[in-house]
Write a structure and sequence with these properties.
- The complex is a heterodimer of chains A (719) and B (130).
- Chain A is an alpha+beta fold.
- Chain A is built from 21 helices and eleven strands.
- Chain A is globular and about 95 Å long.
- Chain A starts with a helix and ends with a helix.
- With 130 residues, chain B is α+β, with helices and mostly antiparallel strands.
- In chain B, 29% of the residues lie in helices and 34% in strands.
- Chain B is built from two helices and eight strands; from the N terminus they run H-E-E-E-E-E-E-E-E-H.
- The longest helix of chain B has 30 residues.
- Chain B is elongated and about 75 Å long.
- Chain B starts with a helix and ends with a helix.
- The C terminus of chain B is likely disordered.
- Classes of the chains: A alpha+beta (719), B alpha+beta (130).
- Chains A and B meet through helix 12, strand 1, helix 13 and strand 8 of A and helix 1, strand 1, strand 8 and helix 2 of B.
- Strand 1 of chain A pairs antiparallel with strand 1 of chain B, so a sheet runs across the interface.
């Protein structure tokens, strides 16, 4: 089957080239049938990619170790869920996932626009086919996921234990869907530029794709943060690591894009800005893929120096050159059809929000590439740490949250100061009230940025709440519906608007969690013996006893050995028990003894968290195996050649030895206030984005009407 | 004020703000950064982000203190490191690590909790060595 998979990729590459060629020829010569043929070639490409992906996925599920990729990232004893997801833990597999998702998205958008955008669509088809072709080219030339091994190994290496977490396995496809999704508006923007159709048509056709891409990318980023928090054993959710930054940058610029296209739709302004933003977003998405895969920056996600870094870089350079060249060549077509009437208007505030978002992106870009920049300027490689990022980003984030509240309630064109005051009076009072209450009853005043953030969040929630109440009560006056019904109908009838409000509320709630948990976190690292107690915040933690488990840890990651602790936690009269542990995976290193192999491989923290709306109590343990070193060495000598069953028994005895007489273990305990609201806020934002992206009945009606009109037009020309 | 003049003023204000922001960015990043160095590049009495690989058979633990040696990524120059605090999960002999601190009397005294270990998958390591 590997041959079939390889063939799919090679044929796919030629199909992509044909699709690009046919569409361009059709567009230039005006022969519609070539355009149609090019579009159908993209459908064909999608089928080929899905076929190849299915073959690879089947090989993983069967644990067919003759595939180099399966032997590298999976094994027969990897749990089924992780076998399924191990495909995209590898470079080749994730390239295939990229190409597959891209061809599917491209097919969807080309199918939806098959009867409209006749000038733009052929060029967009060509751009999408070229991007897909590039990824297929990488696979065919350098990173073929269907490479087979001459000698089939007995067992695969297994999936990296750190990746054995549900959030981590869903995170990459989410990010990729986001990256890939942004290629759709990018392709149509390029198409619009080439065809000189720089109105808002391309935006209307791809707005929904951009929104979906934005949602997936955001969800992916959040899942990555959740993984970091609950798997990595350091207790944080964001470390300004280059790879995290790489996913954040396209999201920031994509957010700016989603806002500024509204200005173009409504007012015909910011055309240059919009095409620049979408080109930047797509470039940053490629850059993200490149950063993750190239190992150019020191990151904890070093995936090793890749074989495709140079090719990626050349492609990125081509994309930048093409976009910049086209925009410059079409400047005359991109003139605004209106001017900014007043600084107190929605478009002005959207512009301001755009500047803040792009500013944020530039800050992150600068910080991420600072090691390279400083080496180029001063000759020494220097890095800026998280404190630098936090210091610069905090004020920008504050402004952003404030704009999140003001922006959506302003009218287009012009608002009088008096009217603005009337809109923001109640929310502003709410913000002041929140700040005063927090100052009086809590120690929130210790951190001024956090206090400001809390007040701004109250402001945003006030604005959004007020909008919902106003809209629903207006409906009730006319329809006499009940409150819940009026609210649901209101949001259902104006999905974009009220979905947008929900997103804003969600983002504000998310920032509430970030501000509280970063400023008021309490953390302690202590070594404890059984029976000893430590304090962190108001919590009293007692190490009751050690645990040792063989085969099958609680999380279903397939770890053979798991050492942990039973911890009694008390806070006032509330008490609960946590079971943090640490999984040990065996290593294949032949220089280690047969028994010590089981203890000296990868190890991962399985933290235990008491989730709560007010605060999380987070606990990780790091058992000290020093007392086992002697017995393990002796067991290596005595049982090195024994049959597997005897060795298993010996390991069981060693584990029991640890459980009965454990040396002091290192614990990290964290009390993190309101951190759960990060995930809740994220979920609200995703929900809002889905509401906004869901097609509304009116839009469907409009589409049907326009299709009907087009058909009538065709019939008339034929007659 | 006529609209053209107004627009010019707006543009000037926006550009000015952008330049100020850029200046802040450049200034703070250079003043807040610390130099990254490999063991062979270390000098006494300056603070660094030390990067390199953990030397085989060099890890020793005494109570809370972890001692190991870091060598250049490609090379043999190495330096002893004294570290306290949380040790990341993937910390192993032969792995690439980053740790902040300064060199005193030939020993690199690391800041508490500053150790970062890269998390390679098993395969990529093999690929590089072969």
């Amino acid at each position: 089957m590997a041959g079939v998979g390889s063939a799919c990729l090679t044929i796919g590459l030629f199909t992509a080239l044909y699709a690009a060629g046919a569409s361009v020829y059709g567009a230039v010569s005006g022969r519609g049938q070539w355009v149609t043929s090019g579009r159908r070639a993209v459908y064909c490409l999608a089928a080929l990619c899905v076929g190849a992906f299915a073959i690879l996925e089947a090989a993983f599920l069967r644990s067919d170790l003759s595939y180099a990729l399966v032997a590298e990232a999976s094994s027969t004893d990897t749990p089924t869920f992780y076998k399924f997801t191990a495909v995209w833990a590898t470079q080749d597999g994730s390239l295939l996932l990229w190409a597959t998702l891209l061809s599917l998205f491209a097919s969807a958008v080309l199918f939806l626009t098959r009867r409209s955008l006749r000038d733009i669509a052929p060029w967009a088809t060509a751009v999408l086919a070229c991007v897909a072709g590039f990824f297929l080219f990488l696979m065919v030339g350098w990173e073929n996921p269907f490479d087979t091994l001459a000698v089939v190994p007995e067992e695969g290496a297994g999936l990296n234990p750190l990746l054995r977490h549900p959030a981590m396995m869903i995170h990459p496809p989410m990010l990729y869907t986001g990256y890939v999704g942004f290629s759709i508006p990018f392709a149509f923007a390029i198409g619009a530029l080439i065809a000189r159709r720089t109105g808002a048509d391309w935006i209307r056709a791809t707005r929904r794709f951009a929104l979906i891409a934005w949602t997936f990318l955001g969800t992916g980023i959040l899942l990555g943060a959740l993984w970091s928090y609950s798997e990595l054993g350091w207790g944080g959710y964001w470390a300004w690591d280059p790879v995290e930054n790489a996913s954040l940058m396209p999201w920031l610029v994509g957010t700016a894009f989603l806002h500024s296209i509204m200005v173009q739709e409504k007012r015909g302004m910011l055309k240059v800005w919009n095409v620049s933003l979408i080109c930047a977003t797509f470039t940053l998405a490629l850059l993200g893929t490149f950063l993750v895969r190239s190992g150019i920056l020191d990151s904890i996600h070093a995936f090793g120096a890749s074989t495709i870094g140079v090719q990626m870089l050349i492609f990125i350079a081509c994309v930048i050159a093409l976009s910049a060249g086209l925009i410059l060549a079409r400047l005359a077509d991109l003139r605004s059809s209106a001017r900014l009437d007043s600084l107190l208007s929605r478009e002005a505030f959207f512009l301001l929000n755009n500047l803040v978002l792009v500013g944020l992106c530039l800050v992150v870009l600068w910080g991420t590439f600072f090691p390279l920049i400083s080496e180029a300027l001063t000759g020494t490689e220097e890095t800026v740490g998280p404190p630098w990022f936090n210091r610069i980003v905090t004020p920008l984030a504050l402004v952003l949250v404030l704009l999140t509240g003001i922006g959506p309630v302003l009218a287009w064109r012009r608002v009088t100061p008096k009217r603005l005051l009337r809109i923001v009076a109640v929310p502003a009072a709410l913000a002041v009230l929140a700040a005063v209450v927090l100052l009086a009853f809590t120690d929130a005043g210790d951190s001024v940025p956090s206090l400001l953030m809390f007040a701004f969040v109250a402001f945003v929630l006030g604005v959004v709440g007020q909008e919902f109440v106003r809209g629903a009560s207006a409906r009730r006056v006319m329809t006499r519906e009940s409150w819940p019904r009026a609210l649901a109908r209101l949001a259902g009838r104006n999905r974009r608007r009220y979905g947008g409000y929900l997103v804003h509320a969600g983002i504000a709630v998310l920032f509430l969690g970030v501000a509280a948990s970063s400023a008021f976190i309490e953390q302690r690292d202590v070594r404890l013996s059984p029976g000893e107690t430590m304090r962190v915040g108001d919590y009293e933690v007692t190490y009751r006893e050690a645990t040792a488990r063989l085969g099958g840890d609680g999380g279903g990651t397939g770890a053979p050995i798991s050492f942990g602790a039973v911890m009694d936690v008390r806070r006032g009269d509330q008490s609960f028990t946590l079971h943090p542990s640490r999984n040990y995976y065996s290593t294949g290193d032949p220089s280690k003894g047969a028994i010590s192999r089981f203890f000296e491989g990868e190890a991962t923290s399985e933290v235990d968290v008491r989730w709560g709306l007010r605060r999380d109590f987070w606990l990780a343990v790091r058992p000290d195996l020093i007392s086992l070193e002697g017995p393990i060495a002796r067991a290596d000598r005595q049982f090195g050649d024994s049959p597997g069953r005897v060795q298993a028994f010996v390991i069981g005895t060693l584990a029991e030895l640890y459980r009965e007489d454990p040396p002091p273990a290192a614990f990290r305990a964290i009390v993190s206030p309101l951190v759960a609201w990060i995930w809740i806020g994220g979920a609200i934002a995703v929900l809002g984005a889905l509401v906004a992206a869901w097609p509304s009945p009116e839009a469907r009606l409009r589409r049907v009407r326009s299709l009907y009109a087009a058909r009538v037009g065709r019939e008339l020309t034929r007659a | 004020m006529n609209p053209a003049r107004k627009r010019k003023i707006r543009l000037a204000v926006a550009l000015g703000a952008a330049i100020c922001l850029a200046a802040v960015l450049v200034y703070t990043s250079f003043s807040a950064s610390s130099e990254a160095a490999q063991p062979s590049e270390l000098r006494e009495g300056r603070s660094y982000d030390l990067t390199g690989k953990v030397v085989n058979d060099s890890i020793a633990r005494r109570g809370d203190e972890l001692r190991f040696r870091i060598r250049d990524r490609e090379g043999t120059a190495s330096v002893p490191v004294v570290y306290t605090g949380v040790v990341p999960d993937p910390f192993r002999e032969g792995r690439e690590v980053i740790v902040s601190g300064e060199l005193r009397n030939g020993t690199f005294l690391a800041e508490r909790d500053s150790l970062v270990t890269k998390c390679p998958s098993k395969f990529t390591e093999d690929k590089q060595s072969s």
